[in-house]
Amino acid sequence: MSTVEIRREHDLDADACRHAREELAQFLREQMGATVQQGSEQLAFVGKGFNGSVTIAPGLACCNVKLGLLARPFKRQLETEINRQLDARLGAQ
Question: Is the pTM above the cut of 0.70?
Answer without folding.
Answer: yes
